[in-house]
Each structure stands twice: as structure tokens, then as C-alpha cells.
Amino acid sequence: MPLLIVALGVVLLLVLMIAFKLNGFLSLILVALTVGILEGMPLPTVVTSITKGVGGTLGTLALVLGFGAMLGKLMADSGGAQRIALTLIDKFGKKRIQLAVVITGFIVGMALFYEIGFVLLIPLVFTIAAAADIPLLYIGVPMAAALSATHGFLPPHPGPTAIAAIYKADLGRTLLYGIVVAIPAVILAGPVLTKFLKHMEHDIPKDLFNPKIFTDKEMPGFGISVFTALVPVILMAVRAIATIVLPKTSPILNYTTFLGDPVIALLLAVLLAIFTFGLNKGKKMPEVMKTVTESIAAIAMILLIIGGGGAFKQVLVDSGVADYVALIMSGSSISPLLLAWLIAAILRIALGSATVAGLTAAGIVGPLIVATGASPELMVLATGAGSLIFSHVNDPGFWMFKEYFNLSIPETLKSWTVLETIISVVGLVMVLLLNMIIH
User: Fold this and answer.
1) Is residue 48 part of a domain?
2) Is residue 50 part of a domain?
3) pLDDT tens digit string along 253-288?
4) Could you tell me if residue 87 is inside a domain?
5) In what helix (H) or strand (E) does residue 326 lie, and over which residues does it extend?
6) C-beta atoms surrounding 213 within 10 Å
7) pTM (2 decimals)?
8) φ and ψ at 37, to 5 degrees?
9) In whole angstroms, what is the distance from residue 429 CA to residue 421 CA?
């Protein structure tokens, strides 16, 4: 009966978001209330559970996502991202242009939400395609693959960071494993896939090709742009490595743990970006702070949706459903990694939102980590992989890709949808292989 109620809750979530077009945050809160009441929780307890879930999920994440948005906006408005892209393209040359775009997508995607990164890089894709007389998808598909992989696998991106918070996974270790998973996924979903899309050649949409191109003088230098963007990644990676190689009694470990904490790492990166992307380029502090303020406004709804996912998760825990699932699955032969991927995949196909799919799946299968001893970090990656699969017409990203690359719906299904599915399936395979090595 507890699982039947959860199933009804998921169906209700689908109905609210698909049939009634209700906002993801409102849908999640209503479903959390419904499931809590049907599970027999006292009404005041349901409310307490929801507020606890929202607060517990956003406690650290609000800072992480807020600082991440600030860093991304500062990088975009200064021309830092454009500098990174153009320099890599110049160094790699036309023959290896796809590799340059993939690296650019990884670097930019670390600090930006997918949609922001896409909109930021698409003018550069148009510029490169026009200047080098290269088909749009030859450049666009690898770029989209890299951005999508960061969304599913690589903290401090908000998607995997939010899932990691639910699983209580170490972000540094998740990042290291995520890089291993992402590289083959992006190669297959990017450069390899484009070999099968040569027949899809369309002109650049004229109404979209009017980007702001920074002059060389306006843009910060390449080295400082890359360093600023990667400061949080470097600090978190050092922390993860230090916890593995240093003894627990080492005094150095205290410093690496502190500096590699996601909140501290991103805070330091933002402070550095205020100087490198703002004051050092002749901007006044009020102008820089305007950019910072605008960045926070852009993520308000995303924060609420993540909080709603945390509320649903907490209701499942407090109502005893999570323990019930753990009890059933503890004697099952189904891999918790596979189960996390499967549940996230089903929700992704039904809902379209990778964030909602990942958070909901994490709330359902989270207790399996304790019951089965599964790696929290690999659970993050398995869930993230499932949340990317088979993007179609209910995903805003589907329409964004279609319109910017001037494609028909069938062409978008054959390119974007296949791209996302390749990343999802390859991601799952890599997670299972890593699990065999780690365990």
C-alpha cells in the first residue's frame, strides 16, 4: 500500500505538470502534501516534514547555486566565456574544432545552467560555422553534448549538486568520477554522432544571429578567464585527492577540507571574478553588483523547484515509505544503481524536466544507499544519467535546440533526442563499470 500511494503521487505529479501545465514547484509541494496525508501522517506533521525538506535541501544548496549563478553571470557579461572559446578555437584549428568546442562547453558548463550556457555559446557556434563554412550541427552537437554532460554528472553544476545533497555524497569525489563518466559519453554523443547527421544542413536563422561580440580589448585574458572559471573545480578536486592520499591526522587536511568545501570554493571564485571580470576591466562596483543581483533573480524558480523536490523526498522519509522501499530492495537482486537510473529515466520521459526527475528519483531510492552499501557518488551519477534520457517535446531544451539550429521536429528527434539518450546510456554503462572497479 505505501508504494501504491507513492505511485499515485508520481501519477499526480505527471498530471499536474503535463495536463494542467502547473509549475514544477507547486506540483511537487501539492504532491508532497497529498502523499503525506494518504500515508496517514498527522496534518501538522505533513507541514513540518515539507518545511524540513525544503530547508534541509536548500540549506547549503542555496549558497552553492547562488554563488554559481554569480560566477556564471560575471563570466558571461565580461566576455570571459567568449575569450575562452575563441582562444581554444584558434589554438586547435579547423580540423580539431569539435574538440575545442567540447572543452569550451565543459569549462563554461561548470559554472552555468544548461540553458544559460547554451544561449551564451550559441552565438559563438554561429560565428564559427559562418566563418569556417562548417555545418551548424558539426559544431552545435558537441557543444550541446558537453553542456548536457556537465548538467548530469559534474558538480558544482546545480543538477548533480542537488542530487548529491540528497544522497549525502562527497562532491569532490563525485566530480572525479563524473569526469571519467562524462568523457566517453560526450565523445560518442558529440563528434561521433555528427558523422551520422551530415544530411541535416540548414542555414543559420537570421533572426537569431545578432549576438553581442566583445572586442579583444573588452575581453579579459585567456589565462585569467580559465583560472577564474575553474577555481571551484580545482579546490574541490584537491580536497577529494587530499582525503584519499593524506592521513586523517594531517593538519593539511583541515585546510584542504575547508577550502575545498563547495560553498567556500565558489565564494572564493566569485570574489576573484568580481576583480578579474569586473573591477580589473574598468567597471565600477555598482555595475558589477548589478550583474550579481541579476544572476540571483534568474535562479529563483530553480531554487524553489529543488526545494520542492526536497520536500517530496522528506515526506517519503518521514512517512516510512523510504524505509519500506529499503526493506523490500535490501533482499532484491536489482542493482540500486540501475534502479536509480531507471526511475529517473521514466520520470524524465514523462515530465521532461531533468531536475525534477533526478530529485524525485533520489528521494525514492535514497534509503537504498544505507541498505545496500551502494556508493553515494555513483548513485548521483546513475540518477543524473537517467534524468537525461530521451528528451522530447515536453522538454524546453528540445525546443531550444530545434529553433536555434533551424531543425524540423523529426530532425530534432534524430539529433538532440539521440544525443541525450547516448549520454544517458553510456553514463549508466560507465557507472556500472566504475562500480565493479571501486567495489
Assistant:
1) no
2) no
3) 999 999 988 889 889 999 999 999 999 988 999 999
4) yes
5) helix 321-330
6) 13
7) 0.74
8) -65, -45
9) 12
